[in-house]
Amino acid sequence: MINISRFLTTLAFSLIVFFVPLFLLADTPVKIEFWHSMAGEKGKLLSDIIHDFNQLPENKNRVVIQPQFVGTYEDGLNKLRTALIARKGPHVIQITDIGTKIMIDSKAITPLQDFINEDPEFPNTLILPAIRRYYETDGILYSLPFATSNPIIYYNSDLFQTVGVTSPPSTFAELEAVSEKLTDPKIRRAGLTWPLHSWIFEQFMAVQGATLINPGNGRQKAEKLEANYLSPESRRFIELWTRMAAKGSFANVGRGWDPAVHNFLAGRAAMLITSTSDIFEIVNQATFKVATAPLPGFEKKKTGGTIIGGNSLWIMKDKPESEQKQAYRFFKYMASADVQKRWHTNTGYFPIRSDVIDRLKAEGFYQKHPTAWTAIEQLNASPATHASQGALMGVFPEVREHVMNAIEEALSGKANTEEALTRAKTKTDFSLLRYGRGQARQNSPQP
Amino acid sequence: MLKLLKNREQKTKFAATLFLLIPAIVHLFPILYVLSLSMKDKIEVFQHPPSLIPQQLSFANYTAALETAPLARFLLNSMIVAGAMTLLQMSTSLLAAYALARMEFTGRKLILGLILATMMVPGEITMIPNYLTVASLGWIDTYFGLIAPFTASGFGIFLLYQFIKGIPKEIEEAARIDGASRLRFLLQFVIPLTKPALIAFGVYAFVSSWNQYLWPLIVTQSTHMQTAQIGIGMFRAQNESVSWGVIMAATVMLVSPTILLFAATQRQFIQGMISSGIKG
Q1: Which residues on chain A are in Cβ contact (under 8 Å) with B221?
Q2: For residue B127, what is the nearest residue in chain A, using CA coordinates?
Q3: CB B262, CB B102: distance < 8 Å
Q4: What is the distance between the alpha carbons of residues A247 and A337, in angstroms, rounded to a whole number?
Q5: A240 close to A175: Cβ distance less than 8 angstroms
Q6: Residue A289 falls in which region: left (phi positive, over 0), alpha (psi -120 to 50) or beta
Q7: Which residues of B touch A278 (CB under 8 A)?
Q8: How far, in Å, CA of A185 to CA of A380, rounded?
């Protein structure tokens, strides 16, 4: 017995003697946890970019950014919510565009603006205004826009030539006519496809200059918000969609982003409307020549513009200030011209800086990759209105569900446009009301 | 062909096999298609009409998958976590079921009722309380944290309880008279007699812990602690076209252990399912 306890004491003592100096001497780097949702090749690219940051001479043995993949954007938000309760959140998290309002209202973040105000070096003036507008509220930039994109038309230009279509459609009427011309039921080819997603609906509203919710797309002070689904812009888009689907010139391939892309790549749809974020992937994988065009409006004269989509990076508030500052240094690196160029030219998301675009233009990058230019042109043409700024609401994920259900009802013929949109509006209005009440309760002083 | 079969019994058997072959092919098809896609290159994946047999067998997708994510580590983690959960659930269920089925003590019915009640509670509800407990124990991002909340199972206890109740009391009485302790009776009689149910439950427990997604996602904080299910997610990018070949290759590597396990134990699995149904 004595032997055992003596042995244990000696062991414990020697362990302490051995390890404590190691802890004291070792230059333990500050660990910055970064939760992200980039999978596949983009995930690999992101890891490489982070690795390079960690290897910079000024960071070696001082700061380590630790990326962790946290599943989809929704998974990431769920993980964050749980972790925040136990104060186990990350330093930095990547959040989807529509999570912006949720993050601001959570009050768990430090606005990026706080750091920018103290740092004259931040490339404030270089960030493209159209991108900045989305993530900015009342002049405060809350997060760092990182991966941004917008929707464009991808089309099979070989097929356009065979069929004799000279230019891509630029109005709703042309879209319908061209789609019909490209449709060939014998080989089961439709003229057009896009993912059954609320995002498409939101974009076609914005391109017509209509807001998704009123007033001001949730970007101005208001007592009550309500959906703008019963506007003429909304109706005529859903009517166009259902009409084309009924005629077979539009291939309804259901929810999810992939099926539409695959139908296009397999030659079962001549045109595809989806995000630019895949542009190089699609061009590489296609066995035909792919060309791109901006999203068509209702009429030739554009009344609106597309909204940016993608994600941004947020700094969490509950970490020590020194660590938040390191996170901000990492943000500056992510916003640097080199990283932005690398991200853009390898993915199809566009850069957030105007100087990167200018440089690539001078280098002739867009002459070699004309397909990548469409999105940037469209981005810069987007007017500074609430409509093309995109909606801001804390219940965006569930609102998207309401919209998609309505679209499915309309497409399947279970309801007409009017009924489907009315139902979606009622549900959306209720969600908005409930969220507004919850916010008011949280913000009112406790008795 | 039919003439070769001698008697009626063989004929029925042959017809039954033929008949069952149809659903078998239907069920096998997705797995075969996954296997086939995993060997195709990027362009062939999208070829229309699709083919089941790849033009050439290539393992490029497998190497690409192994390069993108530490799949071996994910597999190891899943094995450790699912293996530990299964063994722990099997042993706690067996002990609890035996006590509830065979021992007389006050509150027995109440405890059984409470255990049954846990089967009605959806797992998602316990997620946050579990997380807080695990966090306060400092087990975030450890195997303990991954395993601890899933060491007991209401379903397992109920299944084995039904099974043990079916063992004739006389056997136990005889064993006790001959001097066997309760533990000895449990080890030498209960385990062999409930083997089908125990294995069936074990397979069920293994598959459900193997398939866990949300809990491992929430409780891990570093890549080397993540499990295979999250690993598959790493290939499945959102809002973009994905390299299906690579995803399928990763899927093949990550699902084969469960398929092999089921193939090895399916006889017991089916037997356990049938007998628990009859006796319940």
Answers
A1: 33, 68, 88, 90
A2: A82
A3: no
A4: 47
A5: yes
A6: beta
A7: 240-241
A8: 38
Q: Is the CB of residue A113 less than 8 Å from the CB of residue A142?
A: yes
pTM of the model: 0.81
3-state secondary structure of B102: helix
Q: Look at chain A and count its residues.
A: 447
Residue B157 tokens, joined: 């206890």
CB contact under 8 A, B237 and A265: no
- Whether the link from the prior residue into A215 is cis, omega within 30° of 0, is yes
Quick one: DSSP state of residue A350?
B
Helix/strand/coil for A226: strand
- Measured between beta carbons, the chain A residues lying within 8 angstroms of B227 are none
d(CA B261, CA B203): 8
Q: Name the residue among A33, A267, A275 with its Cβ closest to that of B239.
A: A275
Q: What is the mean pLDDT of residues A393-398?
A: 91
Angle between the N-to-C axes of helices A354-362 and A337-347, in degrees from 0 to 180, rounded to the nearest 10: 70
Q: Which of A138, A182, A126, A132 is nearest to A156 (CA)?
A: A182
Chain B: give the shortest CA distance to residue A40, in Å.
4
Task: Say which residue the tokens 């599943």 belong to.
Answer: A71
Q: In which residue are the tokens 């995803």 written? A: B247
Report the C-alpha gap between A252 and A244 in whole angstroms. 10
Which three-class secondary structure state does DSSP give residue A291?
strand
All residues of chain A having their beta carbon less than 8 Å from the beta carbon of residue B235 are 39-40
Name the residue type at position A214.
Answer: N
pLDDT class of A446 with cuts at 50, 70, 90: low
- Best residue in A285, A319, A400 to probe B by mutation, most B CBs within 10 Å? A285
DSSP state of A29: P
**Helix residue spans in B39-107 (DSSP H):** 42-45, 60-68, 71-102
- pLDDT tens readout for residues A130-179: 899 899 888 899 999 998 889 999 999 999 999 999 899 999 999 999 99
Q: Which residue in the block uniquely carries the two structure tokens 């103290």?
A: A118
More confident residue, A407 or B269: A407
Q: Which residue has the tokens 């195709």?
A: B40
Taking the CA of residue B253 and the nearest CA in chain A, the distance in Å comes to: 16
CB-based contact A277:A293 (threshold 8 Å): no
Is B210 within 8 Å of B262 (Cβ atoms)?
no
The token duo for A3 is 């032997």
Q: Cβ contact (<8 Å) for B48 and A275?
A: no
Alpha carbon distance A40, A317 (integer Å):
30
Do the Cβ atoms of A424 and A226 come closer than 8 Å?
no
